[in-house]
Amino acid sequence: MKKLLIALIIFISAFSFAACSRQTVTYSPEKPYWLKKDSYGNSVSAGFSETCRYSVTHKDAETPNANVTAEYSDDCSYTVELTSVKYPADGDSYKYLLTTTYDMRGKYIIGETEYPFEDLTVYRTYFTWDSGFNFVYSEQEAQSTLPVNGAGATDDKGNAVCKIGFRTTVTYEGNNATTTFNITEGDPSYFALKDGFSSTFKKYNKNNYIDTNLLSFAVRSFDFADELNYSFSSIDALSNTKHNMQIKVNEATTINAKNLIIENAVVGSKQGDEDRILNQDAYSVSVKLNETYNGTAMTCVYFKNADTYHHYLYSMSTVLPYSLGSLEYTLVKVDRTE
Predict the structure, then answer these.
(1) Is beta strand 326-337 parallel, antiparallel or unpaired with respect to 313-319?
(2) Which helix (H) or strand (E) is 77 found in, with range?
(3) pLDDT string in tens for the chain (338-residue length)
């Protein structure tokens, strides 16, 4: 149970209104709104790049854990970078590469002892677009630190926290997806799989499918609507499981984007119609497991405007395990080259 719980914690943590008129609901990704409008075709736009940088804020739980406390430093960061690159394994053809980086620093406090951590998780996924996502290859490299339980007690090895490192890959070929798993740090007993494990998921894409790295990014390709509800699956190579997932619109909302920097221009400056600039239409969307063990949804807020703001992910909230609160990610800067 301990092994599977750690696997689920890592998987979830990597993500974890009333309308005046009825809107058309689109249940499938419609267009790559993350590109400029004249680049919506199925060829990869060579030379394209977009980098979204987020600040990270830790919030305490409504009922905090009395035994374990988490504190996160101010220099934590979350970065999502999309580029078009040559993919050597496919004749140097161009692919899109999405690189997602979580750089988390802080400490756990258990009793009177502090356990500092510097955790780094990097996802890389290669894909193309042709009326939807076509995945080629995905990998995850992670160093994570976790309390071994919510009571603050030590495990049978005498550890109150465990530090683990691993690398997973998913190679997509035709209708099959082959995964690999390797341990890079930590006691093997903390993992659900053995070092060097490999597996093949046949017909992985017979139904809707999104690579784990794109759980929040893929939402930018949907036409937002009040009743958007999209079911899909996603392979978690850490636990060798294909999870049932769901994307669901929670509500229409607004974003006060003051001080957000987009392409070196400060949004929310005194120029023009300040109210129009600051308060942008947006949608709150939940991304979650859709299984017996549902966990807690990852809540994301996206700009509604696709032409100017490309459905940017403005904010994201993930819940930490053991009632340690939540992490709130807020967009602070966007750099684009088209």
Answers:
(1) antiparallel
(2) strand 77-87
(3) 344 345 444 444 444 422 333 345 667 898 999 999 888 989 998 889 999 999 999 999 999 999 999 999 999 999 999 999 999 877 788 999 999 999 999 999 999 999 999 999 999 999 999 989 999 999 999 999 999 989 999 988 899 999 999 999 999 999 999 999 999 999 998 888 999 999 999 999 999 999 999 999 999 999 988 888 999 999 999 889 999 999 999 999 999 887 889 988 877 655 555 545 568 899 999 998 877 555 677 899 999 999 989 999 999 999 898 899 999 999 999 999 98
Query: Token digits for 64?
Result: 């905090």
Whole-angstrom Cα distance, residue 35 to residue 338?
Answer: 8
93/88 Cα distance (integer angstroms): 7
pTM, entire model: 0.91
Gap between the Cα atoms of 224 and 250, Å rounded: 11
Q: What is the DSSP secondary-structure string of 92-158?
A: TEEEEEEEEEEEEEEEEEETTEEEEEEEEEEEEEEEEESSSEEEEEEEEEEEEEEES-TT----TTS
| Residues with Cβ within 8 Å of residue 19, at least 6 apart in sequence | 226, 252
How many Å is the Cα radius of gyration of the chain? 20
Whole-angstrom distance, CA of residue 263 vs CA of residue 335: 5
Tell me if residue 239 falls in helix, strand or coil: coil
Q: Which helix (H) or strand (E) holds 179?
A: strand 176-185
DSSP track, 183-237: EEES-GGGSSS-TTEEEEEETTTSS-B--GGGTTTGGGGS---TT-EEEEEEEET
Q: Are 280 and 268 in contact (CB under 8 A)?
A: no
